[in-house]
Specification:
Blueprint lengths: L4 H12 L5 E4 L6 H6 L5 E6 L2 H13 L5 E5 L5 H4 L4 E7 L14 H14 E11 L6 H13 L6 E7 L8 E7 L1
């Protein structure tokens, strides 16, 4: 059966990750992906520009006793200043922080800069998963720019997949990059 985008990429991550791995949650938001990743891996580096997002994520992980997560209140554009080791996966859940100020959103410039840096950190057989939401102002432009950028990645080095339900207007979708 076909899955919605989040269960789909969670399944991919479960199949890809082992306890020794290091991963990045580039946009931790309310902490759901960070919380999903924490029991699966050695360490999660989680980033967000909003203090509310960092606090929400901290509440979730600390209530369950996870100590293998480091939270960084900075743009995902700065992930290379914090992470300098190979990573097995990077997750981007783009758009705005749910139940918060919808005018604070990710954008194509910072996301592509971050993605370029993430690609250099990615281990062979590693995944970069980008969840794109196009129904908010700026979302469509960001998705077009990211599709353009990822479609130009060297096919000898990367597999790039788009996962989307095409019979829904403005349906969110995934771009998944696997390093060969």
């Amino acid at each position: 059966m076909l899955q919605k985008i989040i269960p789909f990429y969670h399944q991919l991550l479960q199949n890809c990750l082992s306890f020794d791995d290091i991963v990045i949650d580039a946009t931790c938001g309310n902490g759901n992906d960070t919380l999903f990743l924490a029991p699966l891996v050695n360490h999660v580096y989680a980033f967000d520009i909003q203090e509310l997002a960092i606090n929400n994520t901290y509440e979730k992980i600390s209530s369950l006793g996870f100590t293998n997560v480091s939270l960084h209140q900075t743009s995902h554009e700065n992930l290379d200043l914090v992470v300098q080791c190979p990573v097995k996966a990077v997750i981007y859940n783009l758009g705005y922080l749910p139940h918060s100020d919808k005018t604070i959103t990710t954008n194509e410039h910072s996301t592509i800069n971050s993605l370029q840096k993430a690609l250099t950190l990615l281990s062979p057989q590693g995944l970069i998963i980008i969840a794109l939401y196009i129904g908010h102002p700026g979302g469509k432009e960001e998705s077009i720019a990211l599709e353009d950028f990822t479609s130009q990645l060297d096919s000898k080095q990367y597999h790039v997949l788009k996962y989307q339900f095409t019979n829904k207007i403005d349906a969110p979708f995934l771009i998944i990059i696997e390093k060969k």
